[in-house]
Amino acid sequence: MAEGAHSHTKKYLIIFVVLAVLTAVEIAIPEMKLQYSLHAGSLSLLAVIKAGLVGWYYMHLEFESKWLKFISLIPISAFIYAVALMLETGAR
To answer: Which of 5, 34, 78, 89 falls between 20 and 30 A from 63, CA-CA?
Structure first.
C-alpha cells in the first residue's frame, strides 16, 4: 500500500453488516401485526436510513463539501411527502 494510504475494508464490512441487518428487519416487519401507519412509516424510515448509509459511506459523501451534503439531503422532502401520503391513506 502507498505511504499515507489506508484500507477502509473494515469500515465497509461493518456498513455491509449493518445494511444486511436493516434488510432483515425490513423483511420481518410485514410479518408483524402492526397498524398500517407503523408498517409504512417504519419501512420508509428504514429505506431512508439505508439510502443514507450507502450515500454517506459508499458514495463518499462524508468527504464532500457542506453544500453538496445539503443538496444530497433535498430528496428527504420526497420521503416526508410519501410518509404523509401513506399516513393519510391509512387513516381512511
So the answer is: 78
